[in-house]
Amino acid sequence: MFGVPVEVEPGILRLTLPLPTGPRHVHSYLVRGDDGWTLVDTGLGLPETPWAEIAAGLDAPVTRVFVTHMHPDHVGGAEAAAAATGAPVLQGQLDYAQCERVWGSDDWPRRIADWFLLHGVPEPVVEELIESGHVSADFVRFAWNPHPVRQGDEVDGWRVVATPGHADGHLCLLRDGVLIAGDHILAPITPAIGLYPESRPDPLGDYLDSLRLVEELAPRVAYGGHGAPVTDPAARAREIAAHHERRLDEVEAALDGVPRSGFELSHAVFGRELPPAQRRFAVAETLSHLERLVVLERAIRHEDDRRVTYTAP
Description:
The chain has ten helices and 14 strands. It has 313 residues and is α/β, with parallel strands linked by helices. It has a single domain (6-311), classed as Metallo-beta-lactamase, Chain A (4-Layer Sandwich), CATH 3.60.15. A seven-stranded mixed β-sheet has the order 1-2-3-4-5-6-7. It has a five-stranded mixed β-sheet with strand order 8-9-10-11-12, with no helix packed on it. Helix 6 (123-133) packs across helix 10, helix 8 crosses helix 10 and helix 9 crosses helix 10 (276-295).
């Protein structure tokens, strides 16, 4: 049920909030500590989210709000949640910097439009992709100047674990074999790993490293932002890594001696008939796999001031 905390295990409550698109839901979590509850992620900033009522129904105060990453369905309600609870917001420094650049900047639509054009998206299609990507923008109310957190910090007994990939600054929380995972480990869906303007150069490489970290940490359960709890996160990390290895092979197979853009290659990998929102993700995912292939010397990147293309070596 939307908006009603459900205990998933002692000291951990799951709060499921609605989304107008995509998976139609996102999970936030309330985790109990020595000084009260930590709210992890905040959904979209939908005006009907009853933060004051949720907080009033708890047996202790919400003492902090922790943001795993800057995507709209995780950071969008941060300002409202903080105002309703009086709690400070904690967020990674890189993640907050990107949050400001995307959600706090008037020129982001133009910057990402220029980037799509550089990667071969025709101008009429660019406008469709920008429009589809900003349907949630009006509901993003992030908290300005949050308290910075980083890898290795402790948050009321939970260890901060950096897991870049799905977002450059993605953070998880780990304690006693429990991973509050944001969108790093999900089931049954696979987190989107895309390349975007001003991001780290090899997000898929980052993500595969972060999956290996989950294997090493071997938590007993991961509570993610969508879907069901992951009861064997290390095994799920291996499954997701294998998925991306297969996708790398598919992208490599689409390459030859003819220079093609990420947009063109997204049609070969994901098919030609996709609505704008899915094409946006397809282009970004194709590009992240192409850049990983470049790092592995399984593809060559060509760039001038007008276009980026890729060929086989």
